[in-house]
Amino acid sequence: MRTPGGETALAVMLVTAFMFCCAASRSNGSSDRIRVVADEPARRVDISIDGQPFTSYIWPATLAKPVLYPLRTAGGIVVTRGYPLEPRAGERNDHPHHAGLWFNYGSVNGIDFWNNSEAIKPEDRHKMGTVVQRKIVAAKSGAEQGELEVQTDWVTAEQKMLLKEHTLLIFRGGPAFRSIDRITTLRALGEKVVFEDDKEGLLGMRVTRALEMPSDKPEIFLDASGRPTTVAKMDNTGVNGVYLTSEGKTGDAAWGTRGRWCNLSGRVDGQPVTITIFDNPGNPNFPAYWHARGYGLFAVNPFGRKIFTGGKEEALNFTVAAGQSVMFRYRVLISSEIASAGGTEAEYQRFVAAYR
After folding, report:
1. What pLDDT score does 28 carry?
2. Beta pairing, strands 67-68 & 52-58
């Protein structure tokens, strides 16, 4: 038998319980479109947008720096190479230090952070540096953007710290795009730090096979220490990547030139994709040089003035005095289209306006 007013009391209880659950959901961030979830014991932070994985910030013991891996389009297509973390059939297995999206440099006080990997011979390891993950400062989810704030140290083989890094990563996404803003501050510690003129830097990624440029011959590339790496000729089926810079340079002609931005466009699994890296007027030596190789290395480097001009200009040995800092601001935009120069320039202006 129901007591008088029982139905009313039950209704009040149900409404109260519903409101409590909604409040708990909001406090746990479950309504946030862009989720940034840290799992430090697993050495990773996972980023998802609208319930779909976008990328992960990872620092496995097998790599000499933290990386964002893999990177995906809004439709879930992976645009980064799998090797060396998850090798896939038909892709290249050269340059084992090219993993995901990373930030380091080839000659910092003579120490090579860029080329370090498990493939380095024991007799050469004293020349190499490691970017060591130290702390997750903050991991914030949100309706419009997610944020990850981290601290790392740039350390020599003798465990001497040259630089302390603070990086803010901002993740955004919509039905047809994904983007990452990287704002990195490097502070020199006990001595001045010199970024010696070198092609190996600074923000780089290695793309999936389809976004490489077709090649008809094997090539050999040398790093700053003269170590050769052979990039083999391969089957070009489905390989269709094309570079385009803000200055109109295309294909192989983009390499070593300066520009505000650079696109890499092509079709992956039949779907149109453009990856764009934007430089920023507030960065040192703007506009930067594009270390954009046909075999799938896509990088922006502000410091290689002499090497990129074939010795026509003086070396730029960029120096940070002890106790001083330098800041870098970049955006990586992954669009589900073959982006035009005009559309990319409009996106570039929006990026610049955000960080004046």
Report:
1. 43
2. antiparallel
